[in-house]
Structure formats: structure tokens, C-alpha cells
Design brief:
9 helices; five-stranded antiparallel sheet; 408 residues; four-stranded antiparallel sheet; alpha+beta; 3 domains
Length: 408
């Protein structure tokens, strides 16, 4: 076929056909999904996923080199098809963002089409497959023959291909587990989302669980209506001696405030250290011509909360919400000398033997006295390849801006 005939064929297959092709890929995916019982795509794990990815890349390279003059291959690796597939991915991702992505959730038709699990569905898998083919073909044509002027294109598209391919194919190797830790005890056991026990290549010893809380708040509790009323105007202010707050029809004055206290032998609150005490506030006021006063406290697992009764209502002290919590743990990776102490926090992960460890939760009933700490462990062996893809994209963008600056 001559070059003019090839060009004529390419002109005939334009954006209209590309978007129809992309729509056909999505529809085919839905048909396969329904025919398969809406079970989605079972992605293979290592090493099969790596082998499949290598075979895909090799076939794309061979097709790009050996079928370079094929009108269909040229069209399949062209811009119109790429844009059509991007639009299809954007639409599927939109459904994945606005619809609940949980098994058994959503309307029946969304479950049948697996729109409640878009990113593991056949429409998404087929669209990603053809997009990788499109991206790969365009990359091969810029790589062979290599020209320095194509470096920006090569880095950007190769990075995009690597990040997308490794992110999708590596999903089956992603491990996300929960590690329950108890103070003074060591464990090397974790549990998956399906409650399956997993042996870790290291052990964690919980030295101490620490929590910082916001200031407690005075509130009025109506047991008849099960209603709690808080002065919203003072909700962001710290409790201080002499402050006045309005709760319902009550005006309450703070006489004394102990951030951390406990009752002595006579039953009077006395200040103590933070690890032993709870918040105590002495309040006073009048209601219907009658004065009231007394101590209110947040209470703890070891001490009942104190409150002041005003007719059929209760003045109480509501504990502050958690401000920050963390676990002091010792990580052992083998022998006793192979250990280190770290502080695990919510947004400050620690790395150990390919795992990322995050502070996840605690025993909420016990609050800052919790002896249980829940740690999340995440292992994604494909993540370095995804990061490499992102760095290649950034390098491609840097070259693009550098060229623009040089032209100016």
C-alpha cells in the first residue's frame, strides 16, 4: 500500500471512529461483566502479572516496528484513539468517584454493571488495556529511530505508561493489614480485611500509647429528651476560671478548673499528673431563684464522671475530642540487637522491610487510657516502579518548560 493510500485510510478513520471504538470497548466490557456474573477482573499476582506485563510490552514493540505501515495499527496508536480512550477512562472514573465502591452497595443495575467496583471491572480493564496499547505504539514510533528532540515526548509517555501499567497490574500484590498491639506485649501477627491472619517478617512491641485531647466542654444534658446542649459561642475557647457560659436557660460560672485531677481521701479533687488525672471543673449558678454549685468531671475507665443536677437536667463535662495520638513501639527485625524504637503517628508512616506502618486507631471506649493500639501495615512492591514513572513524567515536563524558556 502506498503512502497516499495509507494517508487516505487514516483520514477516513478519524475522531468519530475513535470515539465509537472507545464506546464499543466500554460496552463490550459491560457485556463481559454481566455474562461473568458481575465478578469483575481477577488480577494475577507476582510473578504472573510481571510476565503478562512483559509480554504486553514486547508485543506492542513488535507491532509498532513490524506493522508500522498498517493503517489500522497507525490509527490504533494515533491521537484520536488516545483521546477517545481518555474520555472513556474519565467517564468510568467519574462513576467510580460518585458511586459507593463497595460490594453489595448501590442500586441493582449498578451492581450488575459493577459500577460499585469500577476499578476492578471489565470495562475499566479493557479500556486501560487499549489505552496502554495506544500509548505504547506512539512511544515505540518515537523511540525507533531515536532522536534527541523526542526525549521530552519519550520521558513523558514512557513514564505515563509505566505508572499506569505498574499501578494496575501491581494491585493484586498490594497488602493492607491491621496489626493490633497491646501495651507491654509483642506481636508479629496481622489481619487482612477478610480477617485472615498474616505472619509479618518483623515484630512490634508496644511501649506506650499516648493521646492529646482538646479542651473539655461544659454541656447541659436533658435525659428526658436525650439531648445534649453546648454553648457554640464558647466551643472553641479554653475553659478558664471566671468564664461564664449559657446553657439553655442556665447561666453557669466556672469557679475552678483542674485540667488533670483526681479525688483525694476526702473526695475533693486535687491536681495530679496527666497520666493519672481527668478534667475537673467547679461550677456555680442560679436557676429559678435557687443556687447550685458542684464539681463536674469527664470521668475515666477508673472513675465515674461527676455531674451537677439542676431539676431534671444534668450539667456535665464532655471530654475533648482527640487532637493527636501516637504509639511508641519497638520494631524488631530479627535478633534482639536488630531493633529500633519509633513513634507511629496517623500521617507519619515508618518504613520497615518493605512495609509502611501507620497509626490507625485505638480503643475508643478507653480513650487516652487505651492499652490497645491499631496499626495499619501497607506493602506495595510495585510502588517504586510507579514512582519512577512519575519522576519520568516530571523530567519530561521539565524538558518541555526548558525548551519553552529557550525559545523565549
Amino acid at each position: 500500500m502506498g503512502s497516499k493510500e495509507v494517508k487516505a485510510s487514516l483520514d477516513a478513520w478519524s475522531f468519530k471512529e475513535a470515539f465509537l471504538f472507545s464506546a464499543g470497548v466500554v460496552v463490550t466490557g459491560f457485556v463481559v461483566e454481566i455474562a461473568g456474573g458481575s465478578q469483575g477482573v481477577a488480577l494475577p499476582s507476582w510473578p504472573l502479572n510481571f510476565i503478562i506485563l512483559l509480554l504486553l510490552a514486547a508485543n506492542i514493540v513488535l507491532a509498532g516496528l513490524l506493522l508500522r505501515k498498517s493503517p489500522f495499527v497507525l490509527w490504533l496508536g494515533g491521537i484520536p484513539v488516545g483521546l477517545g480512550l481518555i474520555a472513556a477512562l474519565a467517564l468510568l472514573s467519574f462513576f467510580g468517584g460518585v458511586l459507593p465502591q463497595e460490594a453489595g452497595k448501590g442500586a441493582l443495575w449498578t451492581q450488575k454493571l459493577r459500577l460499585n467496583g469500577v476499578f476492578s471491572s471489565w470495562p475499566f480493564a479493557l479500556t486501560v488495556f487499549f489505552f496502554l496499547v495506544n500509548l505504547g505504539l506512539s512511544l515505540v514510533w518515537k523511540l525507533f529511530p531515536f532522536k534527541a528532540s523526542n526525549l521530552q515526548f519519550i520521558l513523558f509517555h514512557a513514564g505515563f505508561w509505566m505508572a499506569l501499567a505498574c499501578g494496575v497490574m501491581g494491585a493484586a500484590d498490594l497488602q493492607r493489614v491491621i496489626i493490633p498491639l497491646y501495651e507491654g506485649r509483642s506481636t508479629a501477627k496481622a489481619y487482612s480485611r477478610s480477617n485472615a491472619m498474616i505472619d509479618l517478617p518483623f515484630s512490634l512491641y508496644l511501649q506506650d500509647f499516648e493521646m492529646q485531647e482538646y479542651e473539655p466542654q461544659l454541656a447541659l444534658f436533658d435525659p428526658d429528651n436525650d439531648r445534649l446542649e453546648i454553648d457554640e459561642l464558647l466551643s472553641n475557647q479554653s475553659i478558664a476560671e471566671g468564664m461564664v457560659t449559657v446553657l439553655g436557660d442556665l447561666e453557669v460560672r466556672v469557679e475552678k478548673y483542674f485540667p488533670f485531677a483526681m479525688k483525694d481521701e476526702k473526695g475533693n479533687p486535687v491536681p495530679v499528673s496527666a497520666d493519672k488525672g481527668v478534667s475537673y471543673v467547679k461550677i456555680s449558678g442560679t436557676h429559678a431563684g435557687k443556687a447550685f454549685s458542684g464539681w463536674v468531671s469527664t470521668g475515666s475507665p477508673f472513675e465515674r464522671p461527676a455531674f451537677v443536677t439542676v431539676e431534671n437536667r444534668l450539667l456535665v463535662l464532655v471530654p475533648g475530642s482527640p487532637k493527636k495520638f501516637r504509639s511508641q513501639v519497638t520494631i524488631r527485625t530479627g535478633k534482639d540487637e536488630d531493633s529500633r524504637s519509633v513513634a507511629l503517628e496517623v500521617n507519619s508512616p515508618k518504613s520497615v522491610m518493605g512495609w509502611k506502618l501507620y497509626q490507625m486507631g485505638y480503643d475508643e471506649k478507653s480513650g487516652r487510657w487505651s492499652s490497645l493500639s491499631l496499626v495499619e501495615g501497607v506493602k506495595d512492591p510495585w510502588l517504586p516502579a510507579v514512582y519512577l514513572g512519575f519522576f519520568m513524567i516530571m523530567a519530561g515536563n521539565a524538558i518541555f518548560f526548558w525548551k519553552g524558556i529557550r525559545k523565549k
